[in-house]
Amino acid sequence: TDLVNSAGSQRAEALLYAAVPQWFPANLYAALNPEDTEKYLNWVTKFSFVSVLSSGSANFMMQPMERAILNEIFIDRAPDLYRLAHGRALDYWLNNPHGDPFIQAQNVLYHRILVDQAAARIELIDLYEHYVEGRQSGAGEQWGETSEADEVDGQPRQTTSLVDLFKPYEADRQLGALDQLLEAVDEACGYLRQLNQPSQSLEELLAYMMARSTQLRGGWEESIRMLDDLELTAEPGLQPYVTRAYGFANAGLRDYADAIDLFQEAAWQFEQNEEILGQERSLVERADTLIALGDAYIDLAEDTISLDERRWRLESRGGFLRGLYYLL
């Protein structure tokens, strides 16, 4: 705060602009702060809390603590200008896409959240669907209401093309990408709260996705605690997904009987929520849930057979030892 207060208006503004993106190439900084860019970029990058991402590159990153403080100051002083800065950053990435499709998707989604929450909601769902389920774009529009426009900031929504670029990614990379994506969404939602424009819809989606991400790493009990904390008010169409997630957790904990009940309940909920989800989405999710239900029945049967087999072996071993005793 003292640094910003003592820097003078133009230098203070130059420092605040540098805190808007999670990281920035020199050209992005020029888009954010077009006047005397080179002069102010040289000044900003001399601070110890601003580092070069790689030797010889023109890509910079501010340390998280200082960046969070500067974002808070920016929001408090000029919330409209803060949102405008995110709009400029979004335009930059739409017109200058990064070569790595995951980094591009994260950059675009992060800034879009601060610009257009309805479009960001759709984009988040589509990216999640691809990372977790291996599905392609279009899912977001089937989870409920859509964005009012097919264009955002004069640019066509890039959800489809971005997700299609992820096809070559392997499962391990996708899970790592999902974690980083959700962290970026969490950060952006925090800034929305500071702007007094919280998105309950995005936060509910984020909470559910974080719980599922935890499950994908085997954190079944932790995921149940996360799901217990989730209250659905803005995303009623999420309820069957949450019920199914409880089913996955119980199956992971080998409580197959409860998992079966939950999968049956989720399948019914998907059918009942067809109006919210859309017919195609409802049918697809119900089919996936029935597959999970079938797997749970198989696991329960195998678990029962395994238990019976162990009992048989113990009984057989006991009979053999008793016979041996009498022979001796």
Query: How much of the sequence is in beta strands?
Result: under 5%
Radius of gyration: 26 Å
- Structural class computed from helices and strand pairing: mainly alpha
| Nearest-integer average pLDDT | 82
Describe the structure in your own words.
By secondary structure, the protein is mainly α. The protein contains 16 helices and five strands. It has helices spanning 2-6, 9-18, 26-32, 37-44, 64-77, 79-95, 101-113, 117-133, 159-164, 171-194, 200-216, 220-228, 239-252, 256-272, 274-277, 279-327, and strands at 24-25, 50-52, 59-62, 151-152, 155-156. It has a three-stranded antiparallel beta sheet with strand order 1-3-2. A hairpin with a 2-residue loop joins β4 (151-152) and β5 (155-156). α8 runs antiparallel to α10, α11 (200-216) packs antiparallel against α12 and α11 runs parallel beside α13 (239-252). The radius of gyration is 26 Å and the shape is elongated.
